[in-house]
Write a structure and sequence with these properties.
Blueprint: H1 3-7, H2 27-40, H3 43-50, H4 55-69, H5 73-80, H6 83-92, H7 96-108, H8 115-124, H9 127-141, H10 145-152, H11 155-165, H12 174-184, H13 192-199, H14 204-218, H15 222-229, H16 232-246, H17 248-257, H18 261-271, H19 276-287, H20 291-297, H21 302-312
Length: 316
């Protein structure tokens, strides 16, 4: 992988993150501390340093570690650590773009496909971000992301994920879109095409007006319409798309509320420098408990818990 490749892409996708640049940053000093911690297998020190640096600063630490030790920090971490804390710190060493690409690849690796993770990324990222992710996927894995998605999915769900990957806002009339979606529900079996086309090619403000009009005309909530008229993976995909259009932060907060380790870690690392503050706010409203407190009440323990808390940063 060519590290300079990522420098050509805009990584700062947001400003409402919890992890900010460390004000007294000194990569040489960090590397010396990391070296000592690796020798002692001192996970606590590694967590303290790597969760308190911005991603740009972590990339500088990786580069300085290589220069000072002639060793790869990723390899050194794998030798010194194990389990969930190892996985989390390795995730933090990736650039934001590289991490999204890695998560997509992992969602399609091995037997079965993790549709939830595919949908989470495809539904919460803009068309521009997905173009960057597609280009980076080809650079890292030497494979075409669209072809990979087609190979891992089928039928109407495959059409939906490909449309999401290539989404681009198209101007349209709200009333025309409402009528198209209503007409698609007239037959015994709903016509999928307008749903995929409209829901993947309009901006969220436009779609929320369409959803409101459709609910008034049909007398049913969007989630209810999707639940009744579609099935299988397509139903799941449309439900996630509707939720993300209405509020991506509420959707991501619901995902975190499952407290499934891989889900919590994936979203928190992915959004740590972008908009995790917004997700925290949605989580508090949704559950009545701050994310910081909720993490401590679940199965997370030891250094892994401390790493998650450091990324979360504080109570709300």
């Amino acid at each position: 992988m060519d590290p300079d490749y990522f420098k050509s892409y805009d990584m700062c996708w947001g400003t409402l993150g919890t992890v900010r640049p460390f004000s007294n940053f000194n990569p040489d000093r960090d590397v010396l501390e990391i070296q000592a911690a690796l020798e002692k297998k001192d996970a606590g020190t590694l967590v303290r340093i790597l969760t308190n640096r911005s991603n740009d600063q972590r990339q500088e630490v990786v580069k300085t570690f290589q220069e000072m030790t002639q060793k790869d920090l990723e390899v050194a971490l794998k030798k010194a650590l194990s389990g969930e804390v190892e996985t989390l710190l390795l995730d933090l060493l990736m650039s934001p773009l590289e991490y999204e690409v890695y998560r997509l690849q992992q969602a399609m690796a091995g037997l079965g496909t993790d549709e939830e993770t595919l949908l989470e990324i495809l539904c919460t990222r803009s068309g521009k971000q997905l173009q960057e992710i597609s280009a980076a996927y080809k650079q890292i894995y030497k494979k075409d992301l669209e072809k990979e998605l087609k190979g891992e999915t089928s039928g109407d769900f495959a059409k939906l994920v490909v449309a999401l990957l290539n989404k681009e806002d198209v101007a349209s009339s709200v009333q025309r879109d409402i009528q198209s979606l209503l007409a698609s529900l007239n037959g015994k079996k709903a016509d999928v095409e307008p749903w995929i086309n409209i829901l993947t090619s309009r901006d969220s403000d436009h779609l929320n007006k369409v959803f409101m009009g459709l609910e008034l005309e049909s007398g049913q909530a969007m989630e209810e319409l999707v639940e009744k008229r579609f099935s299988g993976d397509l139903r799941l995909g449309l439900k996630v798309l509707v939720e993300c259009t209405e509020s991506p932060y509420v959707y991501l907060a619901k995902k975190i509320a499952t407290m499934k380790s891989s889900t919590v870690q994936g979203i928190m690392v992915s959004h740590s420098e972008e908009d995790l503050l917004c997700i925290r706010t949605a989580f508090l409203k949704l559950t009545g408990t701050s994310l910081y407190t909720a993490l401590q009440q679940k199965q997370f323990k030891g250094d892994y818990l401390q790493a998650l808390l450091a990324i979360c940063r504080s109570e709300d």
